[in-house]
Write a structure and sequence with these properties.
A hairpin with a 5-residue loop joins strand 13 and strand 14. Helix content is 27%, strand content 32%. A six-stranded mixed sheet has the order 2-3-1-4-11-5, sandwiched between helices. It has a five-stranded mixed sheet with strand order 8-7-9-6-10. It is flat. The protein is built from eight helices and 15 strands. It is of the alpha/beta class and 284 residues long. The structure holds adenosine-5'-triphosphate and zinc ion.
């Protein structure tokens, strides 16, 4: 039995989806133009599809799992489970207006015509915020709609905002944040569920490792207690004596988020020769 996983055939999520499997130690041939690939060392099969079709295929059970943007998951609104956020393909969906317009608050969208390829997400937002605007669905090049007189405003994906600027628009309100997610068919059999669990175990180990760094440093013994209190290690740090009398080497794991703060604090408290090393996998 194999777990069938749908990923984007070619687009912004394709490469990172494949990298995720590689990091999980799963190899498969992704020879040009193929629609399917079987992993050689794990019971999964990859289906390459357009991202828009993935939620439907997963809902129908043609694929057991899929990787899509949260934006596509919300827009398609199919009967699938959000299993896990994957941390890549990050973007946001925002409302934008022509630069010259003086914007005060979302109430300003009342009475406007808004172009988008994401009518479901937009209408949901408008209803929740009690805004009476017209939604004009178009399938692409949403950002040119205002300049050709098709709409007053747009609702679209934004990552840096430079596309908006070159089209004379400004982002005025972020509606949702999105990243790539793993979605799951609601009726997986026990055997497939077991394969999924072992895949999730690997994904978690890879994700956790990315958020953490291994740190080694030297310190005089009388500073050890202070230094240990600064490093919130996995359980407790490793302390090894150095050849130099009165000194030790301390090893631990620190989270990327508070990384720089911890390093500065360590230096201020007598740590020397600090080494920071990426972690490949982390299993707790
Ligand atoms: P397909 O041919 O599969 O339909 P597409 O053109 O609809 O592809 P892409 O542009 O490849 O889709 O984007 C796929 C997903 O990548 C988006 O749905 C979104 O979740 C994410 N994404 C991240 N950053 C951006 C960005 N700057 N612009 C567009 N999408 C982004
Ligand atoms: Zn698409």
């Amino acid at each position: 039995m194999k777990l069938k996983i749908a990923i984007q055939k070619s687009g912004r999520l394709s490469e990172d989806s494949i990298i995720l499997f590689k990091e999980c130690g799963i190899s498969f041939n992704n020879g040009g133009g193929k629609l399917k690939a079987e992993a050689t060392n794990f019971p999964i099969e990859i289906l390459y599809l357009r991202d828009d079709d993935i939620p439907q295929y997963v809902a129908d059970g043609v694929a057991d799992l899929g990787i899509v943007g949260e934006n596509v998951f919300l827009e398609k609104n199919k009967d699938v489970t959000l299993t896990k956020r994957l941390g890549f393909g990050k973007c946001r969906m925002s409302l934008a207006l022509p630069k010259a317009i003086n914007y005060r608050n979302i109430g300003d969208f009342n009475g406007l015509n808004i172009a988008t390829s994401y009518p479901v997400i937009l209408k949901d937002f408008l209803i929740k915020n009690n805004i009476n605007a017209e939604v004009h669905e178009i399938s692409g090049s949403v950002e040119i709609a205002p300049s050709i007189g098709l709409s007053d405003a747009i609702f679209d994906i934004v990552s840096s905002g430079s596309t908006l600027l070159t089209n004379g628009l400004k982002e005025v309100h972020a509606v949702i944040n999105s990243e790539a997610i793993l979605i799951e068919n609601k009726k997986l059999c026990q055997e497939k569920q077991a394969i999924l669990n072992s895949l999730l175990f690997r994904i978690n180990a890879v994700k956790k490792a990315k958020n953490n760094k291994y740190i080694l440093l030297n310190a005089p013994n009388y500073k050890i207690d202070k230094i240990i209190s600064i490093i919130p290690g996995m359980k407790s740090p490793t302390i090894l004596p150095l050849a130099t009398e009165g000194w030790s080497s301390i090893h631990s794991v620190v989270n990327e988020n508070d990384f720089w703060e911890i390093i500065e604090n360590l230096k201020a408290n007598g740590a020397q020769g600090i080494l920071v090393i990426p972690i490949e996998k982390m299993i707790l």
